[in-house]
Amino acid sequence: MRCLTNLNNGITASKELLKVLVRIWGSGEKPSSTVPLVSALRAELDGALVNIEELIEEELSDNTTAKEGWKNKDRERFKAAFRLVVRELETEKAMRKRTERLNNELAAELAEIKASLVKTSGELKREKRSREVIKEIWNETVRGVAEDKANMEEMRMEYKRVKEEMEKEREMLQIADEWREERVQMKLSEAKLQMEEKNAAVDQLRNELDTFLQDKRREKEIENTNKLIENKNQLFQLGVVASGSEEGEEKDEEDEDEFESEDSDLHSIELNMDSKNNSYTWSYAAAAHEHKGKSVVIEDKIE
Q: Domain locations in the chain?
């Protein structure tokens, strides 16, 4: 702030000195009398340049410190997000191993069920053949031993008992098959639920990463906007452009009194900034009287 005040005062003093020089040259006095004024003007300009350099150094220092702070914050946020992703991946890996283990167990159980079904089917076939044999024996016994009704009745009761036991065993096998099927369905449902939870966690992580990237881009845009505003303010404060009319030089040939007006005192003050080599150029021009036929151009360039 102090540099800006000094710079403003220096530029104001330079303008006043230029006005005095233009009046002196317009009145036709000797150039030797303007040497102190030119020296004073150059001293004011040198002071303004020093203030400008100090202001630029302060701005660069502030920007560097702010950038380092933002970079550190971004690194910390990125590390936290990376650690979260690593933990999520480790959890997903554990869930996948568990799912594979469950799949292997289910495959083993299904293989056991299949083997049990094959075994039961063979037993049923053998039982059917046995039953057919018993029936044939029973028929032969009925035809051969008609008088032994008591034995026949006993064999018939035995047959019924065996049949009931077979029916009970068949029902038990059916119940066991249904129970195994329900168990398989329950395990499949659990595995599906776990996969859905994992997908939900991955979606949440993706949304959080998208939000983080959007916030980062928004902060970058705000930073660029603030820098642009600051640069414009600096140029507005540093650059003072007062352009006179080129037609004034032509009118000087007709009327010498126009040199005494304040509007024609200062013909041009231009500030040019070279963005490649960081150079600053001030150009000052004043036209003398026609019969004097002289012109003065003062240029200072700081690189």
A: 241-303
